[in-house]
């Protein structure tokens, strides 16, 4: 029996590993903060947020943004409860909280830390692009002074600081350098490069992250974590995050199902899938579908059928040629082969099974396999009856319809 990897010529690795990183890439989950800024989602009750937090932990996600406690009493109460859950359940995931670069946003984070004893990084954010400066009537001096005051204020309260520049991918290099250098000199030990409006391409992501790594962080001689935060306006969130890792980013941000403002954040689930397939992370992702399903139900955003990996059609086919190849692989008693002969993603890595269904595009092999899978004896007459019905249909036949054709009822 050949191993599927021996049967696949991998053009992704012709020139060596797809991506080389100095250490395993880290991930920061923004589902409960930036994800909830989508105008189409529900802000779920705290019980559901806690459940989502535990799925993040199970998936080995490194850090989580608990919210923006300065937004109001409910936001602060939820952050407090989530931080307490991290302490009580002894979770490994590292928490951070968003804050504008103003003391009234930073102080609530310090109050949560004092009340729970949980270390929380303050992710203080400030716009950096010329277009934003023009719209807001901001000068560079104002941005530098605001940065200095905010970082020093957070540090005086005992908070670790991630300094975040919004719209970094449309900001001038000299401004990026001055802002980050000021933040680092004032005590920030992490900086986040943001593609806030989904403007950049992978080429631009590599150029910007490389610039920050070499021209900003390296000269400081400090150990600074470099984060990447991407959005999906051009559909490039995952590709840009991978390019950022390639250029030296330590951590990328994402949200379950890519929820977030406008068309959303980089999908955390798709980042996990790609990092796993590239061999950059080594962990079980059998709960990935549960994580996405729980978030989908909690925020009221349905998962499209054709959504990668966790969509209902991801590993489901009714096409005769495709199904025949999968069925032949199954008959070799090789699940791994069956899961890759017509799929670039091995479904069993994510706890999901291949599904063969029957519709107008199906062949008789679909019918025979469907009957065999359910322990129903196949006769020529039964096969012909189901096959004829399928060819007359304009869609895949339901389980109930097929069982009725077999003279059985659905349980």
Task: Please provide a written account of the structure.
By secondary structure, this protein is α/β, with parallel strands linked by helices. The protein has 2 domains: 22-299, Aldolase class I (TIM Barrel), CATH 3.20.20.70; 316-405, no CATH class. Helices cover 43% and strands 11% of the residues. The chain has 15 helices and 10 strands. The protein has helices at 46-58, 73-88, 103-116, 130-136, 140-156, 173-185, 202-220, 237-246, 268-277, 288-299, 320-331, 335-338, 364-373, 380-392, 399-405; strands at 26-29, 63-65, 94-100, 121-127, 161-166, 190-195, 225-230, 251-254, 316-317, 355-356. Strands 1-2-3-4-5-6-7-8 form an 8-stranded parallel barrel, surrounded by 7 helices. The protein has a two-stranded parallel sheet with strand order 9-10. It starts with 25 loop residues before the first strand and ends in a 6-residue tail after the last helix. The mean pLDDT is 94.
**Span from first to last CA?**
38 Å
Q: Order of strands in the sheet with the most strands?
A: 1-2-3-4-5-6-7-8
What's the story with the biggest beta sheet? 8 strands, parallel, barrel
Give the structural class. Answer: alpha/beta
CATH topology of the largest domain: TIM Barrel
